[in-house]
Amino acid sequence: MRLNGVDDRIERHQFPTTSEEIIAAHGNATVELAEGSERLGDVLERFGEQTFDAPEEVLDTLRAGVCHRGVGRRFYSDRDPTAAGENGPQPVSF
Questions:
Q1: How does DSSP classify residue 2?
Q2: pLDDT in tens, 16-70
Q3: What is the 3-state secondary structure (H, E, C) of 77-90?
Q4: Beta partners for 51?
Q5: Phi-psi region of 38 (alpha: psi -120 to 50; beta: other; left: phi over 0)
Q6: pTM for the complete prediction?
Q7: 62 exposed, middle or buried (CB, 10 Å; 0-12, 13-18, 19+)?
Q8: Bridge partners, 2 (sequence order)
Q9: Over 70: is that where the pLDDT of 75 sits?
């Protein structure tokens, strides 16, 4: 996810604030996702009315709320163990 300056806009916003105030001021700002983009206002509306005491709280909510298009390959993990019958990577000791 690329914030496209949304983080800078949120940092300059006056806190404490509500999600309604953030949406009114910055709701049309978009973030780039792995597949497309999404408006800040659309993401925050999913969580209902909230009060934020700091910019980090807004950004955490944004990161938690982007739709599945923001995660790239869904259900992919390079941490899963090798399945039975497959030859996986050899362990390396440091």
A1: B
A2: 999 999 999 999 999 998 878 899 999 999 999 999 999 999 999 998 888 666 6
A3: CCCCCCCCCCCCCC
A4: 18
A5: beta
A6: 0.71
A7: buried
A8: 32
A9: no
